[in-house]
What does this fold into?
Amino acid sequence: SSFTLDFMFNGATNPYITKVAESVIKSVDVNYAPNGFTTHDDGSPVQIQMTVQFQEIELIDSAKIKQGY
It folds into this structure.
């Protein structure tokens, strides 16, 4: 699957961050102990850190740059 990513601020696209072209997920990492391993009384983790890395699959040319990419 491919994704269209938007960086939002206060319910609208953030104009200060450049657009990202159509992308695919390159990797996913889940860390159940980002600050050391601790759990709630029921054994569920206190914190979970998830990192998703995307890779653009479209070439950014001058026409795309004029569109804000």
About this structure: The beta strands are 8-9, 12-13, 23-31, 49-56. The longest helix spans residues 62-66. The chain has one helix and four strands. The two ends are 21 Å apart (CA to CA).
